[in-house]
Known about the structure:
Mean pLDDT: 90
Radius of gyration: 21 Å
Distance between the termini: 22 Å
Largest sheet: 2 strands, antiparallel
Oligomer: single chain
Helix content: 55-70%
Number of helices: 8
Order of helices and strands: HEEHHHHHHH
Structural class: mainly alpha
Number of strands: 2
Shape: elongated
Amino acid sequence: MPTEASKSHLLARQKEINSYLDFLSAALSKNAKLVHQDGEFLLDLEVTHALKSNAYLLLYSAIESTMVQLMEEVHDVIEATEAELDRMHPSLYIYILRSLKTTKSDFYEKDFPLPSGKSIVSFWLQDYKKKVSVSKAHPLFNGNVDSQTIVKIAKDYGFCPQDDASIRNSSLLKAKEKRNILAHGSTSFTEMGRDLSFDQIRQDSENIMNNLSNLIQTVEGYLQNESFLAA
């Protein structure tokens, strides 16, 4: 299956998050405490508030890392077909040309031997790999993944379903915003956690996992049917 690595990655992240939620549920129980060889540590409210906030770091990490893995598989399949630019899905055709217009990589006439359609696609794919390997900021994702980002990429590549509800969810935006607030330090983990309930966190986790699973299924069909090529 063309998205096997993404499925495996998401499953591992889901297991990690579920384990954390099990721990969090226990930590939030009345008089919860950690027992260690030197004694016991009572988990007071302030500590559990921070633990609740931390869940959104795990959720956002799962979102962005899964998207990175998924797009890597998309590029691998496109590369394996050795398709020419003129054979690409119309929206992907435009996206590739726009990407070349904004690239900071040097390119020369020799990079695009005639007919140049295949070499243009190859250059775009290699340029993407270069950006991923040398830059701290991912070319598509850099702390900004939410439904809007995902739908835009889906439209650019040509795998956005007519009804995009299956790849949209407000929990994605919530995870991104909370992650960025915590990363930038504008609110402390304890302050944010005071306004969070365990049920909220669990529901957001379920929404995000379902959303990512739906997206992987959508992309799998797109790759298997070679829908990145023009009809």
